[in-house]
Amino acid sequence: MENCIFCEIVKGDSPASIVFEDQICVVFMDIQPVNHGHALVIPKVHAASLSELAPDIGGYLFQAAQRTAQAIRSSSQMRCEGINLFLADGEAAGQEVFHVHLHVIPRYSGDGFGFNFSDRYWQKPSREELDASAKTIITGLVQQQDEVEAFWQAYTASLPDGVRPPGSYDVWAFGDTEEMANELGQLVRAGIKTATCSLLWEYEAEGDEDLPKAGDVSVITNGQGAPLCVIETVEVEVKAFGQVDEAFAYDEGEGVRSLAYWRSAHWKSFTRVCGSIGREPTETMPLICERFRLVFPK
Ligand code: 5GP
Ligand code: ZN
Fold first, then answer.
1. Other CB atoms closer than 10 Å to residue 260's CB: what's the count?
2. 97 in ligand 1 pocket by Cβ < 6 Å?
3. Does residue 72 have its Cβ closer than 6 Å to ligand 1?
4. How many Å lie between the centroid of ligand 1 and the Cα of residue 118?
5. Do the beta carbons of residue 184 and residue 175 sit within 8 Å?
6. What's the sign of the alpha-carbon dihedral 152, 153, 158, 164?
7. What is the mean pLDDT of residues 10-21?
8. Which site from 107, 176, 295, 298 is most exposed, i.e. has the minimal number of CB atoms within 10 Å?
């Protein structure tokens, strides 16, 4: 993103006192610290606000902030009796730099930093008011799920008479950023992309997901979790990165659809994934190569 000071820091075009860096995030010292040791944790990918940030990257930032907080707490050089994690999302919330960042602020009693409260703060709301607030948020959470469920119902209703709908389905998005989820999801919906691959090591590292198999049905969402289409897995094969051929690269449907393009784009994204699980990318790294067909909308 142009004119974003934090993107410039990510690219190394602007000076920063870097604490930690991997494929996904960077931790560096705030230029105007609230207290000595105040650090910022940011995603490498540009996201102006939380709603633009893929939730798994948000989780990753929190983990990096937790480790940074621990390092600050255990140092004997910094005055730290407590820590605040703080994230300003939106101008009204105090956001000044529009590239998501999580503040890690060391605190000690009498440091002079704090929140201001309005008079309203001192009049506690009733239980009814709290329940009403909870209900409003629950409605928002349910709506996100409902949209996917309604889409699934539309798909099952579109099946010819006598065809039994699948008993269950997964919900997921392509790629590891919101941009990729939108871009690749549209290619799938347009019927251009009919193959995908992921790193077997990532499945092994996460350890809680079953490998895809022929017959699996999935609702594909965009980066904001809105449903785009339904696909059915047709074939799954584990192959080394170096064994992927022209035909598979073409079916992946990205860019110019050549093997050279596929290798360059996927090497980059697998390098990112490898970084997050502490491995090095190689020509022999095993990939789960999956072919699928678009079943809805058609
Ligand atoms: P916000 O109010 O958006 O949550 O916080 C922005 C933070 O970024 C501020 O604490 C500010 O001091 C810090 N900041 C702004 N520009 C730079 C910069 O160029 N380098 C660094 N390291 N921090 C910055
Ligand atoms: Zn940025």
1. 11
2. yes
3. no
4. 26
5. yes
6. positive
7. 97
8. 298
